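Dock MRU; give full complex structure.
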Amino acid sequence: METIDAYQAVTFDHNTDEIVLLDQTLLPNETRFLRLREPEAVWEAIRVLRVRGAPAIGIAAAYGFLLAAIGKQSLPPDEFRRDLSAAKTYLASARPTAVNLFWALDRMEKRLNATAGQTNADAVAALRAEADAIRDEDIAMCQAIGDNGLTLLAPGMGLLTHCNAGQLAASRYGTALAPISRGQEQGYNFRVFADETRPLLQGARLTAFELHAAGVDVTLICDNMAATVMGNGWINAVLVGCDRVAANGDAANKIGTRGVAILAKHYGIPFYVLGPTSTIDMATATGQDIVIEERPPAEITTLWYEKPMAPAGVRAYNPAFDVTDNALITAIVTEKGIARPPYDESLAKLFT
Ligand code: MRU
């Protein structure tokens, strides 16, 4: 079996000016790396979840912006900058919920603006450095999230996670899975339960795959089995990632997360949300202000099946995320520290 290091979600080849992206729609059956040269291919990869997970989407978008700049380098300076503004809007339209997409593109635009009056080549060099910085900082952030999260856990604990917030969703280590990776390095021997995560099966295809590859004791369960494993007394803590955390601590994450949080409350199990501060959106007041992506009904009715598993023409509702009320969250773990209720105060403190 390949080591976990083989599964880098997104990197950039500066020799060929291509994004190297692991096509996550093919996992766990095939490990295929794509080489992307056009922003349109990056937009498509984000839209159909070849690359997914909030931090990885941000990194891919930053490199997508870099590709746009490289492609337009020979234009007159005014046109170059105008087209890049359009490229930013275009890339930002790929998915609506994960704030890291907009955060990374804002950073790239800011860096571009800081090169006003310089040559296009200078601007491209600055954008190259910025996109690399976004990626490198993510590695350091995930490591710190892992170490902070580990302080909440003890060796041998049973942990439940939903969706995939591991290395495949970020750069290295991931967010919600970072304490598990860091604990694995230190002999914590956690017992991890991974929700399969309907409808796109990120838990089955990605979390189980990546933890298994890393040698972690992982058990895959269907989403509707979480209450049973909690009731059995097998779960000591829940760890989930996030796509956008509002200023009051309400947290958007993969659909089904809120149900897990409600169950955790019922069974008296701590429920931790882990993510970098780039996923905290202080400009979004509450979870009600977060746009929830709706995806095609076919993901529920036909996508994974040889034959349709629902009657032709039946209506299907497919929100990709839900919002967990801050009252259900025990703590929010970031690279800058652990925030606890009241979140409007503790999250604001992380930014001062
Ligand atoms: O639709 P996806 O696969 O992009 O959803 C991913 C999640 O919900 C993750 O939990 C979240 O982005 C955190 S990833 C570190």
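Observed: The longest helix spans residues 120-150.
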